[in-house]
Each structure stands twice: as structure tokens, then as C-alpha cells.
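User: My advisor asked me to double-check a structure prediction for DUF1707 domain-containing protein before group meeting. I don't want to rely on an old file, so could you generate it fresh from this sequence?
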Amino acid sequence: MTPDDSSALARRISDADRENAAVVLNRAVADGRLTWTEHAERLELVYGARTAADLSPLLADLHLPAPVDRTPKRLSAVFSKVLRAPEGMSPLHVRAVFGAAVLDLRSAATGEEVELRLSSLFGKIELTVAEDAVVLDEGGAVFGKRRIPGRPAGTPGAVIRLSGRNVFGKLTVRRA
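Assistant: Sure, here is a fresh prediction for DUF1707 domain-containing protein from the sequence you gave:
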């Protein structure tokens, strides 16, 4: 898209376009190219943008990454144990059926949002997160258990959003 192409700038943008712009801003603040104040101001404008013309000036001084693939990745532990340290795998669907899935998420960057859908049936899922990670649990349990630590003190790091259901299973989140 060039600045002279007014029809491209008038194009209405999608939620995926806004999410890609948010990724650019998150990377820029993580790299030190934006302050947290600039990041917050631009992020508010990104989510309010309707057209490419609204979005363009917010990203003009930052390079654009490749489009984000929002197709969920899948990880299953069925009658087995799986150990992983996933990077850039959000959203990730994890399923433990009579097995265990152990994930190390300490490499999630400050400002990064990680989406996990965690489901277990007579299984166990264990997550290790950084000390400053914010863990938001939107899931539930039926004859199961979900143990999530409270919010960290100080400046928040990565945001880890959990959903899914434990049926006769267990979810444990530990801070490193």
C-alpha cells in the first residue's frame, strides 16, 4: 500500500488487522522503540481504528511483521507425558487424557499475550510461568482442580489467558 493509493487507505480493516498492529506495538515496546506510555496511547487508537488510513500513521515509524497466524496449535497427551517449552504458539490447545502435559512458558515476553485452552479428562496439566506473568483463568472444573497463583507484585510481564475445562483432572500453574 502506498500513500498515493487512497482507495487502499479507505479500506475498512478487520479484527485480524488490529491484532497484527497490536503485535507490532508489543514488539516495539519490548525492543525499547516505544515507551509504555506511547504503547498505551497507540494501542488505544489501534483498537479504535476503522480504516487503513486510521492505522497507517500509528505504525509508520515501526516495521511491520509478517501477519500473525491465529490458527490454534494443538498438543495432546493421551496415556502419556508431554514436556514442551512452546514459543510463539498462541493460541495453543492442550489436551491431557489419562496423561500429563507440562509446559514451560517462562520465555513469554513482557507485554505478550498468550492464549491457552487447557482441557483434561483424568489428566494433569502443569504450567510454569515467569514471576511477573499475569495469569487470567477463564476456565472451569468438574470434579477437578485448578490451582492458579495470584497476581504478581510490581510491573506485570506477559499476560497468559487460560480457558478450558478439567473433568476429573488437575491444572497447576507455578511461578518460576
